[in-house]
Amino acid sequence: MKKLFNLLASLAILFSCDAFAININLVADKSRLNIGDTLELQVRVNGLDDQAAPSLGVYDLNLGFDRALFSLNAVRWGDSLLGNQLDLAGFGSLQESTPGANGLNVFELSVDSIAALDLLQAGDFTLFSVLFTAQAIGEGNFSLLINALGDASGNPLSANEPNGLAVIVGAAEVPEPSSVMLLLGVLAILALRVRNLQL
What we know:
Elements: H1 2-19, E1 23-28, E2 32-34, E3 38-46, E4 56-64, E5 70-77, E6 93-99, E7 103-110, H2 114-120, E8 125-134, E9 138-151, E10 165-170, H3 179-198
Parallel strand pairs: 2-10
Antiparallel strand pairs: 1-3, 3-8, 4-7, 4-9, 5-8, 6-7, 9-10
């Protein structure tokens, strides 16, 4: 009986922890591009309830990418449609992005009140976007490591394992002339030769 009780208690704890786990995912605007093209990579959070606790108040993430294939252009904070969900009161947030040897560390801390975050924050939004330029041919892998997540009060939040992404960079295709244009070119050359012979 005691073993059954321990098993049920363990399952209850396990399911209660997973019920509050959030997701942080990578979303790329394209999966294939050519050298010189721009890639926008969004880091999105979901699994929070709309306008309810727990809300996200702080995050510290490492974004891994292949520096041989991609050069970092810029970091854009917040969601393009919803605005920055860690700056809902308009006071700003503490933001830092630090390039490293194997990627980019991104940190943001909200200075909004607990009530503002819990009552106003959406449940699904973009934390930040990173713009890259493809600079070499190959398959580039992007990964995300969660160093820390905290709610509006600074208490730890649990999250599921983030997804990874692969993006393929190919050579820029040179457009081939159409067969009609080639035929017209040949006809124009023949017409000029015939005209020159008649003169």
